[in-house]
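Record 1 of the preview.
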Amino acid sequence: MKTELSVFFKMQQKDDKKEVLKFEIKGNDGENAANQLYQLAGSIIVFEIEGCAAGETTAEFMNIQRDSKKTVMKFAIKGDSEEKAQELYKFAGRNVKMTVQPSQMSIDEFYGEDEHEGLEYSINPDGTVDVPDGQLSLDEVTAPESTDDDELPF
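->
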């Protein structure tokens, strides 16, 4: 499902790990597009701005907010997409045509395995997790260690 819309590229702001982009949809386009795009909020999408050298860009569709005058979409692209971010920045503050479509990528794949560095695991279809033998469990990590110092001579 590819959605085409006319938007105002409201802003682009950088923080430590990502660039946040805000797009404003106005008028009747906003209502129709918002209805199609609500289901994508919170997932990874691919968007493209017509005429932008960045081409298709993968982003987290952070949220979509609607009021009586406008609909605002907020996307986040990773900080390692520096070249794309620079190309996109050239279009900030302008009315642009863009397409938005779902991505096959999960949020974990998009942001990488940074949060799980050093942990090996596999996720089963039922949602349970398997860890390799020999890897410490949470119970083992939080269990107090007994040492010879625990026994005080009185």
